[in-house]
């Protein structure tokens, strides 16, 4: 769309240059008579207006090359063109002033119509390009903000995992508290004996078993003597 706007600016520059040269040649009376146009009086006013139009033509041509000026220059030149076209139509068709012949009237009306169409088209196209540029700028700004927030979140996660993490506690080993069944042979636990405090626990178990044996012998009845 911006490429089309550049083409419109080039067309505007050519039109403005043509009208600027025509007004710059205001003192050339024979040229105006051949084109059946009314000569501007005094000639100084016509030449000054021609210089202004040539300046606008240069601005439009420069804006078609420089992308930073394309939208603004297209809006300015477009408004100048369509307003000039409306003014010419009002004077030529509404007020019938100046009084021109058939060919001069036709040329003037066609020139006014071209200025009106090209000017309005350039203004609308410049507005569309400007809205699209704004939407793209807003999307780019939103994407940049999202990237910054994501980078900040990642840095926060890395800093929290590096300094705020606590070492996990070792799970406590279950302690077997069930006593062995009666008549079951208890195997000595060598691994338990190798740990600190194993001797004290083994000694207490041996004393307990000796006490139980002595109690059992005292409670059993005396056996009869053996006779051969």
Automatic annotation (TrEMBL):
<protein>
    <recommendedName>
        <fullName>Transmembrane protein</fullName>
    </recommendedName>
</protein>
<feature type="transmembrane region" description="Helical">
    <location>
        <begin position="106"/>
        <end position="126"/>
    </location>
</feature>
<keyword id="KW-0812">Transmembrane</keyword>
<keyword id="KW-0472">Membrane</keyword>
<feature type="transmembrane region" description="Helical">
    <location>
        <begin position="73"/>
        <end position="94"/>
    </location>
</feature>
<feature type="compositionally biased region" description="Basic and acidic residues">
    <location>
        <begin position="142"/>
        <end position="157"/>
    </location>
</feature>
<feature type="region of interest" description="Disordered">
    <location>
        <begin position="134"/>
        <end position="228"/>
    </location>
</feature>
<feature type="compositionally biased region" description="Low complexity">
    <location>
        <begin position="197"/>
        <end position="211"/>
    </location>
</feature>
<feature type="transmembrane region" description="Helical">
    <location>
        <begin position="43"/>
        <end position="61"/>
    </location>
</feature>
<keyword id="KW-1133">Transmembrane helix</keyword>
<feature type="compositionally biased region" description="Low complexity">
    <location>
        <begin position="167"/>
        <end position="182"/>
    </location>
</feature>
<feature type="transmembrane region" description="Helical">
    <location>
        <begin position="7"/>
        <end position="31"/>
    </location>
</feature>
């Amino acid at each position: 769309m911006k490429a089309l706007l550049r083409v419109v600016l080039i067309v505007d520059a050519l039109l403005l240059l043509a009208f600027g040269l025509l007004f710059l040649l205001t003192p050339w009376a024979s040229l105006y008579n051949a084109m059946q146009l009314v000569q501007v009086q005094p000639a100084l006013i016509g030449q000054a207006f021609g210089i202004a139009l040539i300046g606008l033509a240069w601005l439009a041509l420069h804006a078609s090359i420089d992308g930073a000026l394309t939208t603004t220059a297209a809006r300015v030149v477009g408004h100048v063109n369509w307003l000039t076209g409306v003014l010419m139509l009002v004077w030529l068709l509404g007020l019938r002033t100046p009084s021109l012949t058939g060919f001069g009237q036709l040329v003037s009306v066609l020139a006014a119509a071209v200025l009106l169409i090209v000017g309005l088209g350039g203004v609308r196209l410049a507005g569309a390009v400007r809205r699209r540029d704004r939407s793209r700028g807003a999307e780019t700004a939103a994407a940049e903000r999202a990237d910054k927030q994501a980078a900040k979140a990642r840095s926060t996660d890395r800093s929290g995992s590096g300094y705020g993490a606590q070492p996990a506690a070792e799970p406590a080993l279950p302690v077997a508290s069930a006593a062995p069944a009666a008549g079951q042979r208890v195997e000595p636990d060598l691994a338990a004996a190798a740990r600190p405090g194993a001797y004290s626990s083994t000694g207490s178990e041996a004393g307990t078993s000796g006490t139980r044996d002595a109690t059992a012998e005292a409670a059993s009845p005396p056996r009869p003597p053996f006779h051969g």
